[in-house]
TrEMBL record:
GO terms for cellular component: cytoplasm. It catalyses: L-histidinol + 2 NAD(+) + H2O = L-histidine + 2 NADH + 3 H(+). It comes from Desulfoferula mesophila. NCBIfam families: hisD (TIGR00069). One of its GO terms (biological process) is L-histidine biosynthetic process. This is Histidinol dehydrogenase. Binds 1 zinc ion per subunit. GO terms for molecular function: histidinol dehydrogenase activity; NAD binding; zinc ion binding. Zn(2+) binds at residues 260, 263, 361, 420. Its cofactor is Zn(2+).
Length: 430
């Protein structure tokens, strides 16, 4: 495996497009098959999920999907105490950070004499958190999806996670659910889980919002049920961009680069720097480390989405950074706080040589459910705000209404809505 530095100014349009596009998948090709599953769940409910999971458990009934207290107890016996201890530390930091995101619950102002307007915060009644499973355990994703909802004040939080043979949920996932305080956990995955959460079945009550990462079928299902329920941003394979100047340490940056591509065959890592010497040193360090690394069978595939890029100067490096709009952005520059002011698009930002992406993945408190595939151009990472509605309100005195009477009636009639205007005149004439 060999990476070579590439100058951004010399990239062909095709090469630049392939770097920016990374492994973005067009899920439209699976819309029809996914929609068929969702439509079936809407009509037949639990029966569809039972039929699908009979392959894992022959005597399956709908009530078997709900995780029991005994399964939680069994999970604690399988997860090392040291892991439990550190999941609790991570949970504490996540709660602390997300509690700070809470706005004042209600505010109001006098817009004009006699006109009071304001806004109040109302948490969602329910939320469904999708947690990937089977191929790997992600207890950190359990904490990242559940705890912002809990902090926001959501009364009912539900978790779905794909089961293994015998309809068994991953014990690490179950322990993390218990630490986060959620008891309603269902052993369901893919579109079957999304459909059950969106439409409800006899055994699973529908939710108001579905959040959490999944594969392309989960993403397609979430996009198809949007409108029936709310969803977070569409999630794709993980990615990171490392923005560095001459102060960057090649041994750190090489490991940060490789840690990103060990995620998944479709993961992406890009280093952008204005220092050709640093770019070459990182390439050399990656080549030296690579034969000693685990998970190279995954990294070999992911490398097609990776690049080491040299910009003409730091302004050009920042321009590329904002265009790439990475899920994770590391800033390793002489003054990362100054650089931060020039960053417009990123899911989560890691500043300085001592803040690699894994600190946010697990324990610093920020959320790791983030927009991918340039979605950071318009989406933010998961937060307390995702679980709070913010309705506005207004109170007017008669004098306040009179001060706006002509404005309202004029605009209503201009839009061809005369009864709107009558609502105002009738009150002012009374």
């Amino acid at each position: 495996m060999r990476l070579n530095p590439e100058k951004i100014a010399d990239l062909s349009p095709e090469r630049l497009d392939s770097i920016l596009r990374r492994s973005m998948q067009d899920v439209s090709e699976i819309y029809n098959s996914t929609k068929t599953i969702l439509d079936d769940i809407r009509q037949r409910g639990d029966a569809v999920n039972v039929e699908h999971y009979l392959k894992l458990k022959g005597d399956l009934k709908a009530e078997h999907f709900l995780v029991t207290p005994q399964e939680i107890e069994d999970a604690y016996r399988q997860v090392p105490d040291e892991v439990v201890k550190h999941l609790k530390i991570a949970a504490k930091n996540i709660v602390t950070f997300h509690t700070a995101q809470l706005d004042r619950p209600q505010w109001q102002m006098e817009v004009m004499p006699g006109i009071i307007a304001g806004r109040k915060n109302t948490p969602l009644d329910s939320a469904g958190c999708y947690v990937p499973g089977r191929r790997a355990a992600y207890p950190s994703s359990v904490l990242m999806t559940i705890l912002p909802a809990v902090v926001a004040g959501v009364k009912r939080v539900v978790v779905t996670t794909p089961p293994d043979e015998g309809l068994v949920a991953n014990p690490y996932t179950l322990v993390a659910c218990d630490i986060a305080g959620v008891k309603e956990v269902y052993k369901l995955g893919g579109p079957w889980a999304v459909g059950a959460l969106a439409y409800g079945t006899d055994t699973i009550t529908k939710v108001a919002k579905i959040v959490g990462p999944g594969n392309k079928y989960v993403t397609a299902a979430k996009m198809l049920v949007y409108g029936q329920v709310d969803i977070d941003s569409p999630a794709g394979p993980s990615e990171a961009l490392l923005l560095a100047d001459s102060t960057g340490r090649p041994e750190f940056l090489a490991l940060d680069f490789l840690s990103q591509v060990e995620h998944d065959p479709d993961a992406a890592a890009v280093l952008v720097t204005d220092d050709p010497g640093l770019a070459q040193a990182v390439c050399d360090e990656i080549e030296r480390l690579y034969p000693t690394m685990p998970r190279t069978e995954i990294m070999d595939q992911a490398m097609r989405y990776c690049a080491i890029l040299v910009a003409e100067d730091m302004e050009a490096a920042l321009e590329f950074t904002n265009t790439y709009a990475a899920e994770h952005l590391e800033i390793v520059t002489a003054d990362p706080f100054l650089t931060l002011q020039k960053v417009r698009h990123a899911g989560s930002i890691f500043m300085g040589p001592w803040a690699p992406v894994p600190v946010g993945d697990y324990a610093s408190g920020t959320n790791h459910v983030l927009p991918t595939g340039q979605a950071a151009l318009s989406f933010s990472g998961l937060s307390v705000d995702d679980f709070i509605k913010k309705p506005t309100y207004q109170y007017l005195t008669k004098e306040g209404l009179a001060s706006l009477g002509t404005t309202i009636t004029t605009l209503a009639e201009a839009e061809g809505l005369p009864i709107h205007a009558m609502c105002i005149r009738k009150r002012l004439e009374s």
